[in-house]
Design goal:
The chain is mostly beta strands. 11% of the residues lie in helices and 36% in strands. The chain has one domain (28-277): Immunoglobulin-like (Sandwich), CATH 2.60.40. It contains three helices and 15 strands.
Length: 283
């Protein structure tokens, strides 16, 4: 997964200083927009499906938001629901991008996802709804990106090309105390998967884009759909490290286009407190 910026990216701090008492994050300047690392990183979930006519333009909305806040907004495209099921009768729609975590999130009564496309921003209600349509994604993100940062995180991968074994380490340091249980969820996403996508927006081929580029596709979770509880009432400066492994030998994912996204959340309310991503898998 290549991070291609229209304007240069300046890296002022190491992305993964994984000592026992220090976790730091990078500062970015992209398209003259500063990713303010004193503010909370944001998770935008795009619930989508290749048989959804309005999901192609929704993916464009998500990509535009991500570009505007590069380094501060992370996107996961969750293929789930009836519009994500394969259609064996159409050779352009036989792919199946669903996974257990995505199915569980889509079906969760807490999230109230009624169809595709729908989205959530840090799994926090906006205008009274925890999931909502594309017109509200940007204003919800604008509200979320100015919140003070609760923690900092780094994600570091090692990948063995021979046995296709992934090892991921996540370091979390709390900047402020949090009242309640905190969960950590670590996911694999894949970029640049080409396939058929139904579509209503010209000038693309209508009613289907035969070579649609699927981005940020959720492939699965390394530690379960709802993650692992890592802390209860963590104080400021609490440092937590977790490591996970995934055997990728039984799938066709391209490690050159895969990366990890990790996020911490309140185990009760599900609100995402911080999120961090990794580079693509490298040996």
């Amino acid at each position: 997964m290549k991070m291609i910026f229209r304007i240069s990216l300046l890296l002022f701090a190491a992305a993964a200083m994984l000592s026992c008492n220090k976790v730091s994050e990078p500062y970015y300047v992209v398209k003259a927009v500063y990713g303010d690392t004193t503010k909370r990183a944001v998770l935008l979930e795009d619930y989508t499906g290749h048989k959804c006519f309005n999901c192609a333009p929704a993916a464009t909305v998500a990509a535009t938001i991500r570009e505007s806040y590069e380094g501060q907004v992370f996107v996961i495209s969750v293929h789930a629901g009836n519009f994500a099921t394969p259609n064996p009768a159409d050779p352009n729609l036989t792919a199946d991008f669903r996974c257990a975590a995505g199915n569980d999130w889509f079906g969760s009564p807490d999230f109230k996802i009624s169809g595709n496309p729908m989205g959530m921003v840090n799994r926090k209600p906006y205008n009274g709804s925890i999931s909502f349509g594309t017109t509200e994604w940007n204003p919800a993100v604008q509200k979320a990106v100015v919140m003070d940062k609760q923690a900092i995180m780094t994600v570091h991968n090692t990948f063995n090309n021979q046995n296709r074994m992934l090892n991921t380490r996540v370091d979390v340091k709390f900047l402020k105390a949090w009242s309640g249980e905190v969960s950590l969820t670590v996911c694999v996403i894949e970029d640049s998967i080409y396939g058929g996508q139904l579509n209503v927006i010209p000038p693309d081929s209508i009613p289907i884009i035969k070579k649609f580029r699927f981005m940020h596709v959720l492939r699965g979770s390394l530690n379960g759909s709802w993650g692992e509880k890592i802390a209860e009432n963590p104080p400021a400066d609490a440092l937590i490290t977790r490591s996970y492994s995934l055997d990728m030998s039984g799938n066709t994912w391209d490690p050159a286009h895969c990366s990890a996204i990790a996020f911490i959340s309140d185990a009760n309310t599900k609100e995402v407190l911080h999120v961090a991503g990794s580079e693509e898998f490298r040996p």
